[in-house]
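Fold this sequence, please.
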Amino acid sequence: FGRTLIEASDYDIPALGYVMRYRELASRLASRLDAQSLLHDTLVVGLAVDAQTVTLRLGGANGERMLCARLVVHAEGTPGAASDVRVFDYRQHAVVAEVRPNAPPGGRAWERFTPDGPLALLPLGNDYSIVFTVPPGRAEHLQTLSDEDFIAALREQFGRRVDFLASGRRAAFPLALRVRRRLAGARQVWIGNAAQSLHPVSGQGFNLGLRDACELAAALGDSRDDPGSAQILDRYARRRWLDRSGSMAFTDGIVRAFSNDIAPLRAARGLGLLALDTLPALRHFVAKRMIWGARAWP
């Protein structure tokens, strides 16, 4: 029964967030780089560290080559199985698609909490990009449905506030919290999803990765001689602790509190959302941390 409305105008900003397709983002980023600095279709097949440099062994269509650097920044995405990575499986899958609503979104995003998990509608032009969180078995079922039956399932899960007319292609992926214990090692540092992969609820993972990159750039800008020095990397890791741990705790807490159908928790959730809507100071406290991270104060 509870709901909360957060408006960008309350924080003197043009928008609470922006939505774009990954391929468009990657294309824009690549256009800002020197083309000669990019190696396409290349895989790191080996890495060796000594006191002064990191030596990378690269493999690809053109054979192997060696590359030396004073610092390697790992930004390759979700970490795989490694002794330094902790994994907390949510036993949920996200089904993603673009859907056409019966009326343009008008810049408004929705997030509805259901017993299966959160359902997010993110405005993307005249469409919505949706993140439909469900148990793994239901995710498989949703992918086998016709577009018409998928739209019917989406209507049933979301309710009557928005209607849907058509759906694009669907994809699904498992959801887990993956946390790398140490952000910095010998002439190496991990940022973004390579450092921590969050549940997509409230859309915090990408924001956190951007702040990782921003703070690392600032830390390296302060370095006079050696960007891979242990002192610089350890200081960066310490500075990221509060924002990182706060963002992970926030998203993990929402998932665990909202992804069930226990009656007392249902009532508590509704009261919590109602409190956010009726108490501006509390709403602003939460919203500022979603916008600027755990270090936002006051």
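The chain has a mean pLDDT of 91. The CA atoms of residues 94 and 198 lie 12 Å apart.
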